[in-house]
Amino acid sequence: MLNRQELTDIIRGFEPDAEFSEGTQLLEAIVPAEKLFTLTEKLKSDKRTALNYMIDLTAVDFTTHFTVVYHLESTDFRHMLVLKSIISDRENPAIDSLTVLYPTAEYFEREVFDMFGIRFNNHPNLKRFFLEDDYGYPLRKDFRDEVNIIER
Amino acid sequence: MMSEEIIKDVIIGENEDYIINLGPQHPSTHGVLRFEVCLKGETVKYLIPHIGYIHRGIEKMCEANTYPQIIHLTDRMDYLSAHMNNEAVCMLVEEALQVEVPERVKYIRTILDELNRLASHQLWWSAFGMDLGALTTFFYGLRDREHILDIFEESFGSRLLHSFNTPGGLMHDVHPNFQKRIKEFITYFKKKLPEYDQLLTGNVIFQNRSIGIGNMSKETAIAYGVTGPSGRGSNYSCDIRKIAPYGAYDKVQFNEILETGCDTFARYKVRMREMWESLSILEQLVDNIPEGDFTAKMKPIIKLPAGEYFKRVETARGELAVYAVSDGNKSPLRMRFRTPNFSNLFVMNEITAGHKIADLIAISGSLDLVIPDIDR
Amino acid sequence: MSSNIYDFSTLTGAIHTWLSGMMPSGMVIFSEMVLVGLAFLLMYALVGLFLVYFERKVCAFIQNRVGPNRVGPYGIIQTIADLIKLLMKELIPIRKSDKLLFNLAPYIVIICSFLAMAALPYAKGLQAMDFNIGVFYIMAVSSLSVIGILLAGWSSNSKYSLIGAMRSGAQIVSYELSVGLSLLAIVVFAGTMQLSGIVESQANGWWIFKGHIPAVISFIIFLIASTAEINRGPFDLAEAESELTAGFHTEYSGIKFAFFFLAEYMNMFIVSALGATVFLGGWMPFHIGNLDGFNQIMDYIPSAIWFFSKTFFIILIIMWFKWTFPRLRIDQLLTLEWKYLLPISLFNIVLIAFIVLMGWHF
Is the pLDDT of residue C246 over 70? Predict the structure, then answer.
């Protein structure tokens, strides 16, 4: 099991642009959106990290930008990593899909698309999941629905 | 012209797909779920699950509610492991505020976890037998589950969705009869559990319908994120109670049940053996509940410091992960629930292709899906 | 030896003489037929009602609960209440179904079970049609009901119904072989296919005891195969509620559904009666070889009571199967028949022929 410092060094080795946050519960790495796929691929195949289990894939809307958050874990060593990518474009947010690496990502990404409107490039089946096609993206902070949501 | 169009409508050719819908109203899919199944004769070529029939927008609602209010929403996700869902959010808040809950609270929470796990597995066994045609299992399982629900009702006032946890501890202390009734239940259920094996496990017809059906290798389980008893049936060691112990789990001895069969029968046996393990955990804990407060001192309005928090628990169906982003207010900025059933569902296409329709029912029963957990 | 048993032919003879005194002989036959037909209709309805109630009580007992006990004393009027409810339901027609076949299917199923019921011996002297090919006739007639099931599934214009009907058709046609072969075993022992002859030949003991091992094997095969014939018990894939939402009769409502439902229970009665007649002695009391005193005592219990209690014993076993075992999948069902039951039945026939030649039975 690698501790936070070792993991930080390995990630910096793969991707010098990565930024790390201080004092958080889990190790977080913020990576530019274009470099995400290659970094994740290396982290999955490398024998020291072996991050082969994707716990969660989700997005957060910070009003000015989106952050796509990936929680990864290794089933052999049980160390965890949080990868984040910031998407500033609110009109057409897009990022690479990780479906080829983690089959479960296909469905998490569909849900993120359904709720936030973030498109994933190279996704095999990017359709809406829970909601109708013309509903809008509910988990965005600027989403308004006069009929169903009562603002306080 | 007209007749040619009609003929085209009616004849299904050799190379075309014969699509059938299983659900959303169907006695076997436990909840509202639609399977679009493509058949060739009796064999399933592929299937596509359609979800969203019971989407209630829980994650959006969490952004408008305070943390004690969110507890009541989490109950309704996987309602058969309601207590574990509550506990996940409570522990997240307690760790964020760095509050130390009393020992008594930890013991009682763990006891309730195991009781909930037992009740959930009993209901699973009842429904699984009923899906396969052994209608009597439904009555035997539910009869025994009533004893657990009576214990809950006496202490908390409600049978299924108690929302008894609150950040900091419990809402009030348990009933004085709590320990005595649990001990009675343990002695009662130890005599009944072998009956379950006699009725279903050893039956030749049942074994023919479940051995070799729905093979899921360990790599598939990890790739699709299948956790819980479904994953442990493929020899994938994923018990959060062992990886990151919480509550009183580090004070009890219990085994993580793994089976190497990788098929429906292995997943079935994992759950049956887990029921025995739950009984043994209950036995170890029930006599040793320390005295003390039932809650720690918390401020009336709970505000988490700005930052991100993550907590995992082991529900009856797998790994529930809660991820909260807070900006210092009394409601979270974003609350995300990574539910076990969401990942468990989508492995079905992989493992059902090539089997028959009757096997589809057996496989979805062995994965033990609760649909509101998928849709949230 | 069977002289103490009350012979119903005295009663039927008396009725015949009384009628002949009133009308010409053609009319006598006609009115007798009408009387017998009415008696059968009445018995069909009553036995059907009772069987539904019986099943619910047996099911409740196995599942550790009480069963119907509100409507009438001990719930005996429950079935009538259900029947009235079914009669009042709306008959929902399906837009694109084949109307003639859709309406015809329940009637075919009922008619077949009626035809089979007519040939059974209910008590000494109380048998409507005593063919010299009795066993063969009942087998032939009960095979016709598969037509009704296939018509029901096809004409419902629904994928689920079609799948259910196809499965059921394959199942019934396969299991007829085993039923026929197991009945054939006793025909070889008795030397006749006439049902009254088979019953008379059990006057010194039932065939299941006289025929020792091969008769017991035949009886077990008969139980399994006839449960599969009537689409019941662990072989009820055609109407598996949790898989195909009632299979071939999904689209039927009201009185037509009641027909299918009733026909299923009456088929259960018929195969149990057949098994009781051929293996367990029909209306013949429990005699043991040469113990005349014992046999005289057994003769005091009326033959109709013997017949019905044996039939209901077999019905109880069939119901027990249904509520205990899970369901077999269609390919496992057919494997059971073609790879296991059929070879065993064939071997059994050879064994019985050998035993009869050697005279090694009682």
Answer: no
> What residues in C contact B28, CB-CB < 8 Å?
242-243
Looking at domain B58-369, its CATH superfamily turns out to be Cytochrome-c3 Hydrogenase, chain B (1.10.645.10)
Which residues of chain B does C332 touch, with a Cβ-Cβ cutoff of 8 Å?
Answer: 205, 208-209
C237 at B interface, C-beta within 8 A? yes
Distance CA B137, CA B125 (A): 7
Least confident range from B174-188, B280-294, B319-333, C282-296: namely C282-296
Inside any domain, residue C347: yes
Cα separation of A95 and A121, whole Å? Answer: 6
CA–CA separation, C325 and A42 (whole Å): 52
Residue C40 lies in a domain: no
Q: Is B230 left (phi over 0), alpha (psi -120 to 50) or beta?
A: alpha
Q: How many helices (H) and strands (E) does chain C have?
A: 16, 0
CB contact under 8 A, A130 and B321: no
Whether residues B346 and A107 touch (CB distance < 8 A) is answered with yes
ipTM of predicted complex: 0.89
Nearest CA in chain C to B134: C326
Among B325, B331, B371, most A C-beta atoms within 10 A, so best to mutate, is: B325
Tokens 């006739």 map to which residue?
Answer: C137
C1 band by pLDDT with thresholds 50, 70 and 90: very low
In a domain, A141, yes or no: no
Which phi and psi angles does B349 have, rounded to 5°? -60, -40
Domain assignment of residue C189, yes or no? yes
Helix axes C254-278, C134-143, angle to 10 degrees: 150
> Exposed (0-12), middle (13-18) or buried (19+): which is C85, by Cβ within 10 Å?
exposed
Distance (Å, whole) CA B236 – CA B219: 9
User: Do B120 and B85 form a contact (C-beta atoms < 8 A)?
Assistant: no
In this predicted model, what pLDDT tens digit does every residue of B255-278 receive, in sequence order?
888 888 888 999 999 999 999 999
Q: Is residue A110 part of a domain?
A: no
Domain of residue A38, CATH code: 3.30.460.80
Name chain B contacts of C329, Cβ cutoff 8 Å. Answer: 208-209, 356, 358-359
Q: How far is the C-alpha of B230 from the C-alpha of B220, rounded, in Å?
A: 12
Query: Residues of chain A whose C-beta is under 8 A from some C-beta in B?
Result: 24-26, 28, 52-56, 58, 60-62, 69, 71, 75, 78, 82, 102-104, 106-107, 115, 129-131, 138-139, 152
Is the pLDDT score of B1 beyond 50? no
Q: How far is B323 from chain A (nearest CA, A)?
A: 9
Q: Does residue A123 lie in a domain region?
A: no
For range C231-254, the mean pLDDT: 70
Sequence letter at residue A55:
I
Domain ranges, residue C332: 92-358
Residue of C nearest to B133 (CA): C326
Contact C331 B133 (CB under 8 A): no
Within 140-159 of C, beta carbons closer than 8 Å to B belong to 159
| Number of domains present in the structure of chain A | 1
Mean pLDDT of chain B: 86
Q: How many domains does chain C have?
A: 1
Q: What is the DSSP string of B4-39?
A: HHHHHHH---TTS-EEEEE-SS-SSSSSS-EEEEEE
User: Could you tell me if B211 lies within 8 Å of chain C, comparing CB atoms?
Assistant: no
How large is the greatest C-alpha to C-alpha distance in chain B, in angstroms? 86
Which run of H or of E encompasses A68?
A: strand A66-73
Distance from CA of B24 to the nearest CA of A (A): 14
Tell me which residue in B57, B223, B321 faces A104 most closely, judged by beta carbons: B223
- Residue ranges per domain, chain B? 3-50, 58-369
DSSP track, C102-120: HHHHHHHHHHHHHHHHTT-
What residue in B sits closest to C96 (Cα-Cα)?
B10
